[in-house]
Amino acid sequence: MRKRRSADVGTKFRAKVCRLHNDGTIDVLVAARSIETATINQHDFFTVMMVYCDLLPALNAEVSDMLNAVKALVARAGNDGAAGMPNGAFREWAEQGERAKAVLAAIDTDDPEDSAYIYLALQALAKSDPGEALARAIAHLADVQPATRSAATKAIGTMELASAKSLEEAGKALTAAAIASDDNTLGHVMTAACEIARAHPHMEDWACQVLKSSEPNASEHALHQLSLELMFHGEELLPSLVANATTILQKVELKNSATISNIGSAARKLVDHGRLDEAMTLVTKMIAKHRELASLEAFDGFASSLRKLDSEQLANVILDWLGSLDPNLGQATMSLTAGHYGKSPLILTAAEATLARPDDELLLLAHRAIGYLFLHPITAASLVLSLMHGVGDKAAEAMQDILFDPLLINFSGELADWLKEGATDEVDPVQPAIIDLLARLDEYIEGLRAAGEIEELSPSERERMIEGHRQHESMRQSHKEAEKKSVLLSIVSRSVLLYGTRSISKFVGMDGEEQRNEMPLHSFHHSFETPRLDILEPFDLDYTLRVFRAMRSVTL
Question: If you average pLDDT over residues 219-248, what whole number do you get?
Answer without folding.
Answer: 98
